[in-house]
Amino acid sequence: MIKLFERMHTHKFEGPTSYDYMHRHYYKGITSADLNVPGHTHLMMDETTFNDGHSHQIEIRTGPEVIVRDGHIHYYRGMTTVNDGHIHYFEGYTSI
Q: Which of 33, 73, 82, 90 is in the most buried spot, having the most CB atoms within 10 Å?
């Protein structure tokens, strides 16, 4: 039996990438569904917006949960795939 605090859940994420090669991209998505157990993480996958003639893929795992007033969030930091000869960096926090 899954306890109340162990329910599956997701988080929203969104933000801009770093500004490189005279442009940036934006990303937005929903994490994988995972159990709410201590130390859990989520998979983040997305394709950035199409800017400067191309887009990039994002695929990283968030950090473990950070407890906040109304629940928890996750910090994430990573880099996109190489496309058009370059990458972009991104970081932020998921929604609660």
A: 90
Q: Which of 6, 62, 75 is nearest to 31 (CA)?
A: 62
Q: Torsion over CA of 46, 47, 49 and 53, rounded to 10 degrees?
A: 170
Scored b (16 or more CB within 10 A) or e, 6-21 reads eeeeebebeeebeeee
Contacts of 39 (CB under 8 A, 6+ apart): 64, 65
pTM: 0.90
3-state secondary structure (DSSP) of residue 5:
helix
Neighbours of 44 (CB within 10 A): 22
b/e code 49-69 from CB counts within 10 Å (16+ = b): eeeeeebbebebebbebeeee
